[in-house]
Amino acid sequence: MSESTATLGESRTEMTELLLPNDTNNLGRALGGAVLHWMDICGAIAAMRFSNRQCVTASMDHVDFIGPIDLGEVAVIEAYVFNVGRTSVDVKVDVHAENPKTDELRKTTTSFLTFVALDDDGKPTPVPRLVCETDEEDELRAEAVAARADQLESVIERME
Question: Is beta strand 129-131 parallel, antiparallel or unpaired with respect to 5-7?
């Protein structure tokens, strides 16, 4: 029996959300919880596209909100699979704020989420092996692996 494979490109997902008053704080900026919700959805879609399975969130790494998303701006959420385990899928999720009047795009946060693929009975099931078909995919994967390692190292240093 041959091992199944899927590509990083097949998992790539982009979502957009217009920041409306219901998702803002009293300063007119995106609520952190709304941003985390969008990240979780986008990451899950990337994991499901990759595995062709229902996927559930297992973990979300450290999240730093490095810039705001203001009322009326567009949140651009991008995700892709960069690593896999036996039944788990690691996804990098980036969030940018886009000013629709100027097309300016600024980074607001990045995190790494892990999802578990489920079979029809709701039990963890094996996922395909990750394949990078292009140099760009290889670079994205390498950048995500290095960025996650750096982020985890930074969190550990803060805890010491």
Answer: parallel
Chain mean position to CA 58: 13
Q: What is the rounded end-to-end Cα distance, in angstroms, of the chain? A: 47
Contacts of 9 (CB under 8 A, 6+ apart): 80, 133, 134, 137
Which CATH code, of 2.40.33.20, 3.40.1000.70, 3.90.1150.10, 3.10.129.10, is assigned to 5-159? Answer: 3.10.129.10
Structure tokens at 153: 């190292």
Average pLDDT, the chain: 95
| Predicted confidence (pLDDT) per residue in 111-151, tens digit | 999 999 999 999 999 999 999 999 999 999 999 999 999 98
Per-residue DSSP letter, 29: B
**CA angle in degrees (0–180, nearest 5) for 128-82-93:** 125
Whether 27 and 70 have beta carbons less than 8 Å apart is answered as no
Please state, in angstroms and rounded to a whole number, the distance separating the CA atoms of residues 31 and 131. Answer: 36
Amino acid at 25: N
**Of 72, 60, 64, nearest in space to 30 by CA:** 72
